[in-house]
Amino acid sequence: MRLISLAASEPTFKTIFFNKTGASFILAKQDNPEQSDKSKTYNGVGKSLLVSLIDFCLGTKTGSKITKSLQLTLPDWHFILDVEIGNRSYTIVRHTNIPKYIDLNDEELTLNDFCSKLEKLCFDIPPKFQYLSFRSLLPFFIRPSKQSYISYDDPTKAGTPYQKQLYNAFLLGLDVTFSQTKMLLKKQIDDTEKLYKNIKNDPILKQFFEGYKDSSLALADLNEKIETLELDLQKFEVADDYYQIKQEADAVKNNLDKTQNKIKLRSINIDSINQSLKISSDVNRNDIQKIYDESKLVFHSDVEKKLIDLEKFYQDLTINRTKRLQSQKHEIISELKELEAQFTNLKEELDSHMKFLNAHQALDVFTKMSSRLAEFQQNREKLQGYEKLQHDYEQKKTSLKKEMILQSEETSTYLDQVKNDINEIMEDFRMLVKRFYPNALAGITVRNNDNKNQIRYDIEAKIQSDSSDGINSVKLFCYDLTLLTHGSNHFMDFMFHDSRLFSDIDEVHCNVLFEIVKTKFTDKQYIASINQNQLNALSPDMQKFVNDHLVRELTDDSDGGKLLGITVELEYD
Known about the structure:
This protein is α/β, with parallel strands linked by helices. The chain has helices spanning 47-57, 65-73, 111-122, 134-137, 161-171, 176-200, 203-209, 215-235, 242-278, 285-295, 307-359, 363-417, 419-436, 469-486, 507-520, 532-536, 540-548, and strands at 2-8, 16-17, 22-28, 78-85, 88-95, 101-104, 107-110, 442-448, 457-463, 494-497, 525-531, 550-554. Helix 6 runs antiparallel to helix 12, helix 10 packs across helix 11 and helix 13 packs across helix 14 (469-486).
């Protein structure tokens, strides 16, 4: 892919035509060169906006800052990006008010379909390969934001360590099947561990994992309990009227207790009467005389009676008392016989009920026993499943570990086989770095990562003492150029750098950088924005080179000098 031009629907826009090969520079001028407010990008001349607009035309997400800002601020605009892929020209049109569609050579495509089509045109991605896509690889050729310039190997700043490794390995021409295989193996291991951990939290199984019980012993105990319960349930006889019989038995028992109490009470009454009958009733006249003499102290003389009459009266009283007690005794004895007969009948009835109740059980008791049996059986199934799981888990873990080791061995063998290809890439990077730092150790190393993670390749571009910002920027430039010229699996023929790349590089090394661009980019495009003060710091030869390859000047002296030709506030990364 080459960039041909960027235009817009509005006439104020400063259309940019890029050189088909070699360098294309966009120069940013300021009336006040001393101003250095880098955060004020939305009110600038548009050099950083240019990158965002190209990225917008190449399918950035509808939720991105630039897309939403354009939709809100410039709803009637559309932008036109002409590109060349292979020997064919393509015109890309994206409207700000309907960003979910993009026109490619007058064919309206959804955003996903557009990206899929460009993916096939620009990259040689294996089928059904997760994470590799047009949008994930494009930032290595046009770094879209300020964050893209922090790390040479991670221009997206949005993926995982695995994805970062995958993108770099793919563009360096490494076999990414090894990367994906290790990632999937590690995920299987993690998923297996997670499943095993979740099962360990089951309240039944937790005690075994925590070492409180031996599962084999618990299974033996459960089998015994299940067998006993099953036999009990086979013998179980359910009585539908169990509780009715029980209520009747309770009533009989209550009557039996009452009858027994009555029997005891009657027996006590008979004993009391017998005791009363034993008391002597012999009273002679002398006793009566004595009582009579004593009564004269209280009664009047008109109450005196003859002793003979008193004696007769007392004898009659005694006879009547004895008759009355005998009569009561006979009556109680009769009641006692009836109560004893009633007691016998009630006892027989209670015995009959109890015999029935002992031989039968209630339905809810049967249900409880069945529920208990089901609980035991469920626990047994869990324990059996646990033992099988533990066995399968150990086998799978061992199998996955073996596969990880095998994959590591195969990767090492593969890296030995492609060592010459890797060395060629490393040498190209090293020679570029030598142009900047002749005495520095530099290179790109690729090593097999056999640690327990998803990373297959440890890829590192290194420049001795590369901790400073200037050296980091040089490394980024050299790495991008290496991917463009000696990378694999892509059909990209351009590289775009924002002026922020040059900000931390000193004047001497900036001259070297532009000298490399001058000599290296004979059949590919190098596009960059550059500030006036950066241009002024270059040598006369390099200033001439830049000026000879200027494709657009942007100034802040008026709206007409800016990229959009108007002053608006747009947000973008």
